[in-house]
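#onboarding

Welcome to the new folks! Below is a worked example of what a typical request in this channel looks like: someone posts a single protein sequence, and someone else replies with the predicted structure as tokens. Don't worry about understanding the tokens yet, we'll cover that in week two.

Example request:
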Amino acid sequence: MNPPQELEAVVALRTLSVFSADQAGAYREHATYASSILGDDARSKLATWIASWTSNGPSGVVVLTGNAGTGKTAVAEAFCETLNTTLPSNDQLSEVAADKWVVKDLSGLPDPRAREDAMASALTKSLTGQALVCANEGVLRDTLEGLHEPGLLASLDLALRHGASHHDVPAVTFVNVNRQRPTADGFWQSILEYLFRDDLWRGCDGCPFDSGACPMRSNAEKLRSPVVQEQVRTLLRLASGDAVPTLREVLAILSWAVVGGHTCHETKNRFRDIGPEAFTASEAYYTRLVGGGLPDHVLERSPLLVGLRSAGLGEVSDLEIDGWLRDSTGAPSLIRGLAGNPQVRARAADGDDQDVALAGTVSALDRVSTLQGAMTFHALGEMVSTDEDPTRVEDGLDALVGGRNNDAAGQVLWRQRVFFEGVDPIGGPTAVARRLLDYRHTAELIALAHDVAAGRDTVLTVRQMARGLNFLVTGFSSADEGLIVPDPACLFARDPGSFRPASPSLVHSQISLNRLSLSTPDQGLVEDLLDVDHIEVELIVDDNPTHLLRIKPRMYEAICEAAEYQGPVGQGVAEMNDLRAFYGTLASTFEPDGGLRVANPKALPPTLVNVALPHFTSGGTE
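Example response:
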């Protein structure tokens, strides 16, 4: 079979990207073309469960709620496919088979009365059949309030907190699809297989991949590497602490990372006209994953991309890694290969400056654009470090530190590539994340969350958290006295997380460590229905769900820094407001302890001081 003129996988990924002008593929109802190329969807646990329930389950209603793009429509399609029928094109309550009903989108109905009628009808028909209803949270809540169903509203609130809940009469299962995580085991691998499996990327007619000049196939090849896949997963997990990682947005980011706005025709023409210099690391997956090539006004539309960029990948300097860029000669072999060192990846050179600059290159992923032409990371570092021509040195420094044509700086690109592909020489994923991300404790939080979900012992971690929290709210970094709850007035004056040295604060009460426990939000029914990935924990007092602090990556970072450094730290406003709410709830719930105590961080050593007030008698004071 002759290769196509345009690789179909490239066309499919372009339609999946919501960052391009053609956004049709981003919406499930219009993604038929992309599906016809990429094949069967990455099957979620929820879609599999729905298919099983449709075939063998009891009567009742399943209500899917969540943000747009979380995959509700895909699950509705799975419901219909199990019945050998197609999803209705309208949003009305539709009977798709005998006693099988579906509402594709409750919010698509014209007014509250129509939504209430559709929901009431679904509840009635579910007494003898099955109904699937898709709805956004706000519309669903208003509809249930209009139907005067307090029991269903309480069950909905439970699902929003824990991911899923079941109400017995009427039989309604609520599923909060926002709790689905594309980075869950199994689901994550199937998403990558769906987009990047080898048979999709065999090349088109005249593809310059073998000449190192097709960045799209180079990107797809790297994203088939298990090491790279795991590093991408780490970044998405981190970003999930700031935003709901909708499936639509994850597909869009991965698609942009590989193809950007390129076509096969344009790629072949640019290589024909310019040669290997046509494409550089500005086209690489490792910079596009964090929004490279997108204007700021587009980046702001994607909460997940904003979260990815907050990781600071490429912005964090590291003496050893930056040194490898300026002189890769003494670096480990893998690192020298990433830099395009010709001693590792020999390539013919005839002495021409351009050939020397690109000696050792194998793809656009190891090339940087400079005023002296495209060159490998190795050649750029060598020019900056050893060249005697001041113009060339200045041009090299400009590319190294400033970047060209709105591209990321060379050193930023280098750090980004090392993060994804240079893991082993740096000591593994945890070490490279700690050294190259603004978040130094992400891997620890993920490991902790999975330990908590598995029921492993976390006594030492609770103690360390209490120590960090005590410092954040009082400046007193000790866990020997348990969790210190400051007087609310002192807590607000403290401004948790600020760089100001802490002043002494009144202690409202103390909570012993044995009353504290850790949990994860996704437990119970939700684990049976959704692909969950534990990336956050909850600190709970007395096993009371109203007395909990949800700890996401940014909050965990603040707690760990406070416990580790015992010095002023700075963190986000949202996280500090969460701390105020948590401690405010504790202070309003628990009675003040007897006596008056002050947490005094200015004492040497910092201490918890009991204040003795004067005792008045009839004869004076004692």
